[in-house]
Every structure is written in structure tokens, then in C-alpha cells.
Design a protein that fits this description.
50% strand, globular, four-stranded antiparallel β-sheet
Length: 117
Amino acid sequence: QVQLVESGGGLVQPGGSLRLSCTASGTIFSIYTMGWYRQAPGKQREWVAHVNGGGTTNYGDSVKGRFTISRDNAKNAKNTLYLQMNSLKPEDTAVYYCNINGPAGNWGQGTQVTVSS
């Protein structure tokens, strides 16, 4: 069974930065993509960014240029995924979820990010 555990969320002022982390553990046969989604109150879950096995990254339009996704593939890294979030805006407020292999794949429990003055 695959477990994804996110960390790094919190309260930050507009214009600030946060770095989210996600550690994957358990039996993982194949990872095609690792990514981040988010869900704001009253809204549907939204794709934020992902990185594929070859290291290619893709971003949603709302975060492009502000967020950076990266993956640590070192042997002792345990498939750790990061999301560096800069120039945060109030509309970035959401629960952020780590994901493996898309919507039909595996999900973490989420970490709350609140951007407010």
C-alpha cells in the first residue's frame, strides 16, 4: 500500500513563500508522474503541477512562474516531492494534495495553505 504524507503548509502573508514536501512510502511499482493538486473551499480540486519520470515539469496557468515543482530521486530520498511556492496570493489558499499517477492514482491527506494578511 502506498502512503503519501505532505508537510510544510501554514499561514503566510500575501507575497510570501512556502515550501511543501511530500514523502511517498510503501510498495510503488511504477511512478509515471508525481504532482500537486489543490482544493479551495467550495471549489473542485484543481491540478497545480506535475513532474514525470523524465523530469519534465508542467504547471497550471494560475501558478506558472510562481511555483516550482521538483522531485528528489536520490536513493535515500524515498521519492520525495517538493513544491516551492513564491509570490503567494490569497487565491492560492487551499488544501494542497500530493498525488502519484494522476486522479486515479494515490493521494495524500493534504496540507492546508492559507494566504492572508
